[in-house]
Amino acid sequence: MKLILSKASKIRGEIKVSGDKSITHRGLIVGSIAEGITILKDYSTCDDCMATMEIMKKLGTNILKNKATIRIEGKGLHGLKEPDDILDCKNSGTSMRLLSGLLSGQNFFSVLTGDSSLLKRPMKRIIEPLRLMGAKISGRENDQYAPLTIKGGNLKAIDYKLKVASAQVKSAILLASLYVEGNTSVTEPSQSRDHTERILNLYGAKIESSKDKITLKDKNKLKGKEISIPGDISSAAFFLVLASIIKGSRLLIKNVGINPTRTGILEVLKTMGADISIKIERNKNYEPVADLIVKASKLKSIKIFGEVIPKVIDELPILAVAATQAEGVTEIKDAHELRVKETDRIYAIAAGLKKMGAKIEEKPDGLIIEGPSTLKGNICESFNDHRIGMALAIAGVLAEGKTQLLESECIDVSFPEFTSILRRLCGADHVYETN
Ligand code: S3P
Q1: Overall domain count for the chain
Q2: Cα–Cα distances in angstroms (integers) from residue 168 to residues 41, 94, 125, 338, in the given order
Q3: Is the pLDDT assigned to residue 211 strictly greater than 80?
Q4: Residues 222 and 234 occupy one common structural domain
């Protein structure tokens, strides 16, 4: 499938982005090992979350999905069963890494696999701590890559220092810690998203977090809950940038999750001069949520590095698009992790934007982008990476002439509603799909 895009004029109106992908994964996993019923409202229907859902079913959980809700009949901490077959995480790193932790706590054998992209992503980072805890876990090429085989059970507590700020690795360790005697701690080099800590606390566990150390203190029985999942700020990011750039735009984005470990995009865009206001805030205990209003404004360059990087890691491709329209030289540093996402995102976004006429230079750990430049439509590859695809689609509606985005179906991996929202905002002549 191809997405054809051309320059749009002002963006006005109101949108609601779909449920947060990270929280939906965690709701499916924690709901399955809790006692009683969990209801997930406003969940994400994206391919990644559906991969986790199918795996939880293969592990014995009854899960009923309808349009409005997912209903999970929790099996309790020790109720999962050995799957009959290998478990396919498809494109989803979150599924593979979180489930490795969960499966390390299970006294049975399982195998996790994924698509060609996931089979190239680093897995030693989870194998190391989970093995220290006592899991028998191995991977291909000397434990670097999946498929992973896991025989869990008999785990012990560890005090582990993460080498990279990764919520997926932290969460794998915390999920495995539900199955150990004693308290496991994880120390992060800088803070990553804390959705696992929040959902475990909500379900009745006790997690203490100091600045950089997280300790699972009490593994009380987890109790099923009804939870509403906030809109995904990583999905909202594409429209925050779009409406900031196109003159005369004003957009209301309703019900967006504003967990402080995820709002780096708001900080960065505001520093660049974006006009974003938080209208109504609610739901403070579990995950904070707000309506955001964004109006067009003149953007200026910025340096993005250090502690903010884990808080904007998924938004860096769309921030690179924003930087092409900002006055001055934007520098992104300390973002080596971007090279090991669904594709090498430093290479992929530089390649796409360069083709469209941007002044963008790759660095080992980031990008240098000189703006503003007039983007010109071209044939661009998504590299089968959802966030590269969506970032280049936004570039496509900012550019002169026509852009063809190849393999645009990858967008469904995180945000299946993206194209229809973009089409509604920009007009059907400016955004359409063809084969
Ligand atoms: C995620 C954590 C991040 C992020 C990914 C989702 C999560 O990955 O990039 O999209 O839900 O825990 P890392 O843990 O590799 O930083």
Answers
A1: 2
A2: 23, 6, 10, 14
A3: no
A4: no
For ligand 1, atom 15, the nearest C-alpha belongs to 166
Supply the residue whose CA is at minimum distance from atom 11 of ligand 1.
22
Same domain, 90 and 163: yes
> What would the pLDDT profile of 127-147 be if each residue is shown by its tens digit?
999 999 999 999 999 999 999
34 lines ligand 1 (CB under 6 A): no
* pLDDT, tens only, 221-230: 899 999 999 9
Which residue out of 47, 48, 92, 94 has the highest number of ligand 1 atoms within 8 Å of its CB and is therefore the one to mutate?
Answer: 94
The CATH number of the domain holding residue 217 is: 3.65.10.10
Residues 163 and 253 in one domain: no
**Cβ contact 200:26 at 8 Å:** no
**What's the gap in Å between 119 CA and the centre of ligand 1?**
16
Query: What is the spatial distance between Cα 218 and Cα 201, in angstroms, rounded to a whole number?
Result: 10
Which ligand 1 atom minimizes the distance to the CA of 26? 11
The model's confidence at residue 68, banded by pLDDT at 50, 70 and 90, is: very high
Mutation test residue for ligand 1: of 100, 192, 196, 346, the one with most atoms within 8 Å of CB: 192
The answer, yes or no, to whether any atom of ligand 1 lies below 6 A from the CB of 44, is no
Question: pLDDT at residue 32 above 90?
Answer: yes
Is residue 10 located within the same domain as residue 120? no
Of 345, 241, 390, the C-alpha closest to 302 is 241
Q: What is the pTM for the complete model shown?
A: 0.98
Residues 269-294 pLDDT 10s:
999 999 999 988 888 779 999 999 99
Residues 247, 381, 324, 269, CA torsion sign: positive
Pick the last residue of a domain from 173, 201, 228: 228
The residue annotated as part of the active site, out of 88, 232, 291, 314, is 314
Q: For the beta carbon of residue 363, count every other beta carbon within 10 angstroms.
A: 14
Domain that holds residue 389: 2-19+230-434
Q: Which of 171, 194, 228 is the last residue of a domain?
A: 228
Q: Are residues 375 and 245 part of one domain?
A: yes
Q: Is the pLDDT of residue 405 over 80?
A: yes
